[in-house]
Amino acid sequence: MDLFFYGLIDRWVLLQQQIRRSSVWISIFRREHLPQTETDFLAMNRKNFFVHILPATIDKRSLRITYSWFWMGVIAFWLFVILVVTGIYLMFYYVPSVERAFDTVRQIINQVTLGRFIRNLHKWAGEFMVLAVFLHMLRVFYTGAYQKPREFNWVIGIFLFLITIMFAFSGYILPWDQLGYYAAKIACNIAENVPFAGDQVRQALLGVSDCNNLNQFSLLRWYVIHVFLLPVLMVLLIAIHFWRIRKDEYTIPPEEGA
Question: In which band, very low, low, confident or very high, does the pLDDT at 15 lie, cut at 50, 70 and 90?
Answer without folding.
Answer: confident
